[in-house]
Amino acid sequence: MAWLQENWIIAVVGLVVAVLLVWFLFGRKKAEEIETPIAPPAEPKKPLEAAKPEIIAAEPARFKPREPTPAPVAAPAPPPPAPEPVAETPPAPAAEPQPAPAPSADNLQLLKGVGPKMAALLNGLGVTRFQQIADWTDADVAAIDPQLGAFQGRIARDAIVDQAGYLARGDKAGFEAKYGALGGELQGG
């Protein structure tokens, strides 16, 4: 007993360790006693019923370009009646008029802000020359702009009419001073 009075701290620590050991071995539940959570049974599906996916509404196509409407074609005027010959000599055959050579189209992609898609839209509207664009009035821009679909507003924002004026005059230096490098070769200039 004298040993216990002198070493009472060691005895208390030993007692606590013994209690914890007994609790650990006998006090906790065994694996068989622990209940595993069970999910509620799923509702049985009908045989051969396809799973229905969630339907998600798609966004409308906002930037689909409008198809340009072709300009109405005027009916050709009937030819005037041929004048009757005054003399008995047969008239000389008239020379057939030669059509004027069509001007070649300008590379509209030289304009800053006009890429291949917008150039194709403008060509579809009959716009192929810088001079055509340079001659546009505010009313012309207001009429053409809604037909450009996703490129609507680009004519004013990129000052395309002013750019076309420089290129129509062949003023490459003036264009590059105001808008930067041309990015291609100007025809005839």
TrEMBL record:
Keyword Membrane annotated: yes
Stored Gene3D superfamilies: 5' to 3' exonuclease, C-terminal subdomain
Sorted UniProt keywords: Membrane, Transmembrane, Transmembrane helix
Residue intervals passing through the bilayer: 6-26
Location of region: Disordered: 37-108
Sequence ranges of Pro residues compositional bias: 68-102
Segments of skewed composition (Basic and acidic residues): 43-52
Protein name: LSU ribosomal protein L21p
Source species: Sphingopyxis soli
Lineage of origin: Bacteria, Pseudomonadati, Pseudomonadota, Alphaproteobacteria, Sphingomonadales
